[in-house]
Amino acid sequence: xxxxxxxxxxxxxxxxxxxxxxxxxxxxxxxxxxxxxxxxxxxxxxxxxxxxxxxxxxxxxxxxxxxxxxxxxxxxxxxxxxxxxxxxxxxxxxxxxxxxxxxxxxxxxxxxxxxxxxxxxxxxxxxxxxxxx
Length: 133
Hints:
By secondary structure, the chain is mainly alpha-helical. The chain has a domain at 4-69: Alpha-Beta Complex (Eukaryotic RPB6 RNA polymerase subunit), CATH 3.90.940. It has helices at residues 6-9, 16-31, 45-54, 60-71, 97-105, 114-122, and strands at 86-88, 94-96. It has a two-stranded antiparallel ribbon. A hairpin with a 5-residue loop joins strand 1 and strand 2. Helix 2 (16-31) crosses helix 3 (45-54) and helix 2 (16-31) packs across helix 4. The longest helix has 16 residues, at 16-31. The chain is elongated. Its EC number is 2.7.7.6. Promotes RNA polymerase assembly. Latches the N- and C-terminal regions of the beta' subunit thereby facilitating its interaction with the beta and alpha subunits. It is an enzyme of class 2 (transferase).
């Protein structure tokens, strides 16, 4: 069988660097025991991975999603909070979760003009000089 080259796969995956990442990921999957979708023909795992991409037996988008999923260390899951859960408000006092909705409406923010900010910055004392800098 002819060698699989990047040109055989580049029309399936536009970026050759992404192609290398996807083929490497698929080769690792094959070495871990994943089912191959093309005949082995005494080829090594990276060549099989490239042949699978070239023959479109695997979707590059599916490989990309699988690669991203395999590299994630923490998957954030949105879980609803239980009603009546006790949490702390800004003052540190324990408040039931149902009461915090009303407390959020009463929050006020101080507004500062640019002139007030600059005047406050000018009043700051610069740090002592040291040899660390």
